[in-house]
Amino acid sequence: MSKLAVITGGNSGIGEACAWRFAREGYEVVVCGRRGEQNRGVCDRIREAGGVAHGYAVDLRDARELTECFRAIALNHPPVTCLVNSIGIEGTPFTRTEEYDDTVFDDVLATNVKAPWQCMKAVLPTMRLARAGSIVNVASLAGIRASATGGSVYSASKHALVGMTRAAAREYAPFGIRINAVCPSFVRTPLSDDILGGDLESVGGTHPLNRVCEAQEVASAVYWLCSQDASFVTGIAMPVDGGTQA
């Protein structure tokens, strides 16, 4: 039976690493995101490596586009086995609460909270009928403690995503659906490079493991949470932080 993993924000960074990991594990992969050309590039490379991947260009903040996208996925692919919500933005880094722009606040919450919530709503009915499925939301260490870079708005969005994950996990556990979150700290991604630039390596030195996390390491945690090896794990916010929480 075919296994389908839908990866939102799968055209770069952690999402792209997740797409590659699931493809290597034999999943058919669907990459969803606004950047259609990047989606196609990721999917082309996965197919060249022998995997099965499809890209959908969609603004997941737009409810109509999101609904149409998941309708197309349901029509053209097997039922969704795993959903990985890796969509997310930082907003305006290093900005005090009093100086934060209202429109950026709205965009951060729409991208980091509402879009994953609506993606969950899109797949949960089918998972509930199948009494199986796994969802992993890519949160952040800022969903557990204050953000070092994103400030109050980014922290609020990731705390909300963690709370939503835990509540939904309790709701859907009776149907055999597991819902978890991963909470990475500093990861080597294009977004981190944009925010921290040449400081990324030095910031990685603040981790007890004394290095920057690689996107593939987060993808491994995501895959484990979706796998049968984690069959009794639901409702957690797993730090992937090189020992920072310790």
Automatic annotation (TrEMBL):
<dbReference type="InterPro" id="IPR020904">
    <property type="entry name" value="Sc_DH/Rdtase_CS"/>
</dbReference>
<protein>
    <submittedName>
        <fullName>SDR family oxidoreductase</fullName>
        <ecNumber>1.-.-.-</ecNumber>
    </submittedName>
</protein>
<keyword id="KW-0560">Oxidoreductase</keyword>
<dbReference type="Pfam" id="PF13561">
    <property type="entry name" value="adh_short_C2"/>
</dbReference>
<dbReference type="InterPro" id="IPR050259">
    <property type="entry name" value="SDR"/>
</dbReference>
<dbReference type="InterPro" id="IPR036291">
    <property type="entry name" value="NAD(P)-bd_dom_sf"/>
</dbReference>
<dbReference type="GO" id="GO:0016491">
    <property type="term" value="F:oxidoreductase activity"/>
</dbReference>
<dbReference type="InterPro" id="IPR002347">
    <property type="entry name" value="SDR_fam"/>
</dbReference>
<comment type="similarity">
    <text>Belongs to the short-chain dehydrogenases/reductases (SDR) family.</text>
</comment>
